[in-house]
Amino acid sequence: MTDPARTDRRDLLILGGGLVGMTLALAAARKGLTSHLVDRADPKSMLEAGFDGRASAISTASWRLFRNIGLADTLEPFGCHIDSIAVVDQMKPGRIDFRPDIHEGSLGRMFANRQLRTALYEAVQAEDAITLHAPVIVKDRDAGEFVATATLEDGTVLTADLLVGAEGRGSPTREEAGLAMARWDYSHRAIIAGLDHTKRHDNIAWEIFYPDGPFALLPLLDKDDGTHRSALVWTVDEKDAAGSLKMGDRAFTAEVQKRMGDILGTVTLNSVRSSYPLAFQHTARIVGQRMALVGDSAHGMHPIAGQGLNLGLRDVGALVEVLLEARRLGLDLGDAQVLAKYEKWRALDAAMVMTATDSLTRLFGIPGKAASAARRLGMAGVQQSGMLKKLFMDEARGITGDTPELLKA
């Protein structure tokens, strides 16, 4: 007799319905793989304007993924092209301008996270191959020898061939699997806010480095009335974060103005301020018995280069491709050899990106005039080297290395 509380078995049991988890479910569905998608948050609350004020830079490769799974037409009206990236040390001379050739297109697109989440959620809702379970509490998860299961608080048992942890940095799936993780705290917080400004941003993303952390200005689409907008990601020392958040709007914008000078003209806040702690965490092993990790469950990094979500989307492309090959060969999707291929594929890319962002954070965090002068000398050298600039731009666009098919043109 079939247990009425046990659901139909799917190919994937994805725990975590954030941006990476929803993208995985949708990408898998487009290739014929079914999934249970599970999240503890109420989808309606996640789509509210105040749920997440952050914005994300979507690289060229990640945009190809969205296009290949049918989201490009929905998202295109909401994305602001990043035509160049300006890198400066404390607004001093020695700036690097990363601007691709016109035939290479932009360096990426900026989206409000809410727009990404809305497009993904609506596509998930319309996809028969995905069953969304939210909001629910997972009481127990088990990646067994023959089946992966998750038991919900109401007694429902979800079953699948493969368990995927996509819950984010605090992933219970990772913790219960006992996967060792390298982690350190930067003792900094990122303050997030939306800005209106009087000058056009000209589709330039600014990365201004100060000893206490980077100060990023990210271009967004103008409002309907023509008001110019950008997203601010300001890294501050942990001990200063509470004071920065408690400042009145006038005092806060005065501090922002002091750090950015006149590049965007006069700025005003157009959102509430929020913050989150910054830490490095990297899981050397991202698979276990009948289980794989994607996104921040596997690796969380400093937002200095805006690569966190893009790294997770490359996880998605690689995992789907590996699973499709396994299906073609008649293999169990949870087979250890199948998962080992995914882990090996992602190891080098993840390690390189995370090492680079951590090194940049430490390099630009060295105080003193001598360190600043040395950095600016090095930046001037990069500015003159077309080869180096192209290498950095290709890395930012996500088009180097062994790219999954879903992230190709």
Report on the architecture of this protein.
The protein is an alpha+beta fold. The protein has a domain at 10-79 and 110-183 and 280-366: FAD/NAD(P)-binding domain, CATH 3.50.50. It has twelve helices and 20 strands. It has helices at 19-30, 43-46, 60-68, 72-75, 113-125, 172-177, 238-246, 249-260, 308-328, 336-364, 369-384, 386-397, and strands at residues 10-15, 35-38, 55-58, 80-82, 84-89, 96-98, 108-112, 130-133, 138-143, 148-152, 157-165, 181-197, 204-210, 213-220, 228-237, 267-269, 274-283, 287-288, 291-293, 299-300. Strands 5, 6, 12, 13, 14, 15, 16, 17 and 20 form a nine-stranded mixed beta sheet that branches. Strands 1, 2, 8, 9, 10, 11, 18 and 19 form an eight-stranded mixed beta sheet that branches. Strand 18 (287-288) and strand 19 (291-293) form a beta hairpin. Helix 1 (19-30) packs parallel to helix 9 (308-328). It is globular. The termini are far apart. The model has no long low-confidence stretch (mean pLDDT 88).
